[in-house]
Structure to design on (149 residues):
């Protein structure tokens, strides 16, 4: 799949619900609005921040053992991903778009780390999402709300 022009995965809560942090791609509302006016460096900075936050949460709970299987799952579920970013970003997109259909991570080329293995998969996906939104919100509050004051 070619590199995406936007990290949007089609679940935008900034435009639908007025959220400060998008529940889909984890960009901030002002980034969603201004994305098309950003130059390549600004876009790359946004993507790198999202990548870092995704990896921080996902690598703590999951391991990707087959990038090939992960890519096949992305294709099967028609989930966009940016090949220049970490496969953990791709995994987050897949979790967000297909979490209700999860029966086993193994078919995706992923396994749950032992300390989280007893958590039902839908609950684990909810926990990951909550942590990502909390971390993204804290980052926003620290670096952007403080400047607005």
């Amino acid at each position: 799949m070619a590199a995406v022009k936007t990290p949007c995965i089609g679940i935008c809560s900034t435009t639908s619900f007025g959220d400060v942090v998008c529940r889909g791609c984890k960009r901030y509302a002002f980034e969603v609005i201004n994305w098309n006016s950003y130059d390549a460096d600004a876009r790359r900075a946004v993507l790198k921040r999202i990548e870092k936050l995704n990896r921080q949460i996902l690598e703590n709970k999951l391991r990707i053992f087959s990038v090939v299987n992960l890519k096949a799952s992305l294709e099967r579920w028609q989930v966009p991903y940016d090949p220049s970013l970490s496969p953990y970003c791709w995994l987050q997109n897949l979790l967000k778009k297909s979490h209700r259909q999860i029966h086993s991570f193994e078919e995706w080329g992923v396994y749950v780390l032992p300390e989280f293995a007893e958590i039902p998969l839908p609950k684990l996906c909810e926990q990951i999402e909550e942590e990502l939104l909390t971390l993204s919100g804290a980052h926003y509050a620290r670096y952007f709300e403080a400047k607005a004051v």
